[in-house]
């Protein structure tokens, strides 16, 4: 069994717009129970604002509390799941990369720090004033999405852009500078992450990715070091480890099959690698979850 990758057309209510979806959050989870009750990933960008409710949001094996004023951002490919202790309220919207980028010539989604990199925190806590202000824009967005107004798509993408700008201003004010990747090297890092996602099963050397990016391995290591305080090898290993966790927990493969899928020479080598990164064996990790 593979982790399901949900596509935007699986959520479609509005037939006139193909690449964007907006909904009241409680209504969203009610009508899409069959899609979102188990861990899954998406092929689109997603943003959620909670105004009420409590629970836990797990994103790629990191757990975050759900509470009023919390905003979550997800990029394509991230695995996540919800668990609610009390009924949630708020808004959710998601859209494809093209829906946003094709409407703006001066900037794209990579202009916003929560979408720079998978390494940046996918969460933001708003204070009461910011929550009220942002909720007002979500209200307007939802009403526009539910309407049949002229130039509807243009209005929607404009409102989303305004929401992203306001959230970016709060995000950059609250996240510690050492935990936030700046835009100077963000293009290279974004391209590197895409390449690692594409090739990590078979290509585990930094030189391969440097060649793909048409830069030297030394410069690539400099970019990764200055933005993430890691080596390129560590970044590749992190991606392998994340996929290992996903396969161990969310697939029916046995541990030897997981090792084989990730192209380790044998299970013993895979187990040693996994324990060196997590402190526990793959079997212990499986039992934990």
From TrEMBL:
Keywords: DNA-binding, Transcription, Transcription regulation. InterPro entries: AraC-bd, Homeodomain-like_sf, HTH-like, HTH_AraC, RmlC-like_jellyroll. Residues 190-288 form the HTH araC/xylS-type domain. Pfam families: AraC_binding, HTH_18. This is Helix-turn-helix domain-containing protein. It comes from Olleya marilimosa.
